[in-house]
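Subject: Sanity check before I submit

Could someone independently write out the structure tokens for this chain? I want to compare against mine line by line before I put it in a report. The sequence has 136 residues.
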Amino acid sequence: MGMAKLYCFALVLVLVFGLSSSMRVPGVKKHYVKFINNLNNKVLNVNCKNQKPYIDLNLHILLPKEEYEFNYIIGRDMAFSCNLRHGFTSTDFPISDRAIKRECGGNHCIWKAQDDGVYLLNRKTNQYKYKYRWDK
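---
Independent answer below. Compare away.
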């Protein structure tokens, strides 16, 4: 009788853990991107797009010290790039390639716009690195 109870208990455990793990969608990862306006009393315009499939996240206008954040499911065709603009200066750069993800320390990348350029936070070292200058 004791062995039958043990088998029933084992079966219940398998069913419980099997069902809970099947609730997750395998292989789906999200990439999180945040922009911080750290410009000296200037408005920052942020516009991010993916070309194929075409996705335009529209223009976001950030007042000083404001933030804008979005996320997307990482896929083979996701290659977002963003345009940051303030006044008559701007810069365009990719935000979803593997090198950038390595530099930011994972799938949570934080970009900070400052008067001298755009910086990327490495979450592992908690240090910002200068990445892009403003084009005239």
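---
OP: Matches mine. For the report I'm noting this point. The beta strands are 30-37, 44-50, 55-62, 67-73, 81-86, 89-94, 108-114, 117-122, 127-132.
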